[in-house]
């Protein structure tokens, strides 16, 4: 407002003439313009100048009121102090909507008799002239193809926040009249409630239009949901819907479908638009259905991935969910077979990085081949080509040479331990799974302090994941900075005397089982600084063997 008042430029609005866009009320506009860039400015002007309400984070319509001081020529968001001050016009929309500017100015001067009347009249007139201010507009022609418009959209930054093709898809969905607006809300509310279930009451209270649709019933279950393994963003939902409904990986391709663009002729055919929205709606209703979503989560958890921080790639979850939903339409598969395929695909993707980099093309290729070969046959083909003996025996141990506990290889190792009900390092009964759900420590098998004092000062040396094991906090504290030669000798003494000093293991066979569960070589009892690097090499190979056995058991 201040820039407009001073005659400064406020940037261009960019619009696109959308062919066949649906208007509220069911009409179709031949030349409705979709706002590509400038939403925040338009919203601000509607709120400040026209006095229209905006929707806050709790989905409640609220007024954002802008005040103006005709004496100092300042703008401010109204506060209780400003609202009580006679010197301020507490709501500039009252001026823009006034029937008589003369009476408006007169009332202000009567309330402020000491003010310079000429300056006040001039400044209020200058404020009122904002409604005639010129704002630059760039209009993209309706003959531009949707991919070009999408690329333009993605390249534009709004207040420093890069826009995405998913934003464009959400905007396109909303242009399809009441149905499109409510489908967009279905996506938005599903994602919001997955993170903040308490927002359900805000939606019920403040969005009567959406709550009058059947869609509200489809997501009502989220008000009682506390699961956070997979909390998809609207971008994730768009991707899953694109794969499920259209077998398309790019959000811009989904926009093409919703625009009625024939993939064969590359021409817009408006008659294709209703069917495209039917496919989108069907896909979204499958995505948000409680039974589908919860069973998918259970499938991923049954593979040992029981916590969100074990999964570094949302794309792996997105594709796996789309695959699960797609397989539900295959009547030749039992539910058990579907879950087995999804589990193996998920873990294969974690280990191979299949959904990183230029994943969208890979997604489309995978969906096509799943359609032609069948999911089980195609998965087997991938496993035979990528998960070879060379991968398990050479590539995987090499990949475990990392300091990152977020590494998908280390997290898959932990998932393998969860699935096999392995116990924490040197723990008699506390499992890896329970430590994930409650509390546990990442323990240096050869302690960090010991290594730093004995020739390994670099973090890259002592923080190798092959030197990590999950254990109870109390055991971690009891070990302290003692090398394995000392703390394992103390445990052997504990086994002989029955006097507990580190953990609760009092049986030598149980100790051997515990070391095996944690992929720790039996020679750990002799490991010191001199043999530390050899220990890491052996343990990486043991960890890789654990992961291989785990994958083959899925």
UniProtKB/TrEMBL annotation:
Q: Where is the GmrSD restriction endonucleases N-terminal domain?
A: 1-172
Q: What is this protein called?
A: DUF262 domain-containing protein
Q: Which organism is it from?
A: Sinomonas flava
What lineage, starting at the top, does this entry show?
Answer: Bacteria, Bacillati, Actinomycetota, Actinomycetes, Micrococcales
């Amino acid at each position: 407002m201040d820039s407009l008042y001073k005659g400064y430029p406020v940037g261009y609005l960019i619009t696109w003439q959308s062919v066949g866009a649906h208007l509220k009320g069911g009409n179709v506009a031949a030349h409705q313009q979709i706002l590509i860039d400038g939403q925040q400015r338009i919203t601000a002007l509607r709120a400040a100048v026209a006095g229209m309400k905006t929707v806050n984070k709790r989905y409640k319509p609220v007024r954002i009121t802008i005040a103006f001081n005709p004496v100092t020529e300042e703008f401010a968001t109204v506060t209780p102090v400003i609202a009580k001050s006679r010197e301020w016009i507490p709501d500039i929309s009252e001026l823009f909507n006034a029937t008589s500017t003369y009476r408006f100015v007169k009332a202000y001067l009567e309330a402020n008799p000491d003010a310079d009347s000429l300056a006040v009249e001039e400044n209020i007139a200058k404020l009122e002239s904002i409604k005639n201010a010129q704002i630059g507009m760039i209009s993209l022609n309706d003959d531009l193809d949707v991919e070009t418009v999408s690329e333009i959209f993605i390249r534009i930054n709004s207040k420093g926040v890069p826009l995405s093709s998913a934003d464009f898809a959400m905007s396109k969905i909303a242009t399809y009249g009441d149905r499109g607006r409510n489908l967009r809300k279905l996506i938005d509310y599903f994602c919001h409630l997955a993170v903040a279930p308490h927002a359900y009451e805000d939606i019920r209270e403040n969005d009567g239009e959406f709550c009058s649709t059947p869609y509200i019933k489809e997501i009502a279950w989220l008000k009682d949901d506390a699961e956070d393994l997979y909390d998809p963003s609207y971008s994730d939902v768009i991707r899953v819907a694109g794969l499920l409904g259209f077998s398309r990986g790019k959000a811009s391709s989904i926009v093409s479908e919703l625009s009625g663009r024939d993939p064969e002729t590359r021409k817009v055919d408006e008659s294709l638009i209703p069917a495209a929205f039917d496919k989108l709606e069907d896909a979204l209703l499958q995505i948000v259905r409680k039974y589908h979503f919860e069973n998918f989560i259970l499938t991923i958890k049954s593979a040992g991935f029981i916590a969100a921080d074990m999964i570094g790639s949302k794309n792996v979850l997105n594709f796996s969910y789309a695959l699960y939903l797609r397989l539900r339409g295959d009547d030749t598969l039992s539910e058990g077979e579907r879950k087995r395929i999804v589990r193996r695909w998920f873990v294969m993707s974690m280990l191979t990085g299949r959904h990183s980099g230029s994943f969208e093309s890979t997604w489309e290729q995978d969906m096509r081949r799943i359609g032609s070969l069948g999911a089980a046959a195609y998965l087997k083909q991938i496993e035979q080509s990528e998960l070879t003996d060379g991968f398990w025996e050479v590539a995987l141990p090499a990949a475990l040479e990392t300091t990152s506990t977020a590494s998908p290889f280390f997290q898959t190792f932990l998932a393998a331990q969860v699935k096999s009900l392995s116990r924490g390092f040197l723990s008699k009964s506390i499992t890896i799974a329970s430590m994930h759900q409650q509390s546990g420590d990442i323990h240096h098998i050869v302690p960090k302090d010991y290594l730093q004092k004995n020739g390994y000062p670099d973090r890259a040396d002592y923080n190798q994941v092959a030197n990590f094991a999950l254990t109870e906090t109390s055991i971690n504290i009891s070990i302290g900075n003692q090398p394995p030669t000392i703390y394992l000798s103390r445990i052997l003494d504990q086994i002989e005397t029955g006097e507990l000093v580190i953990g609760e293991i009092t049986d030598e066979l149980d100790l051997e089982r515990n070391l095996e569960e944690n992929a720790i070589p039996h020679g750990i009892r002799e490991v010191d600084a001199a043999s530390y690097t050899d220990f890491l090499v052996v343990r990486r190979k043991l960890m890789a063997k654990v992961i291989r056995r785990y994958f083959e058991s899925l």
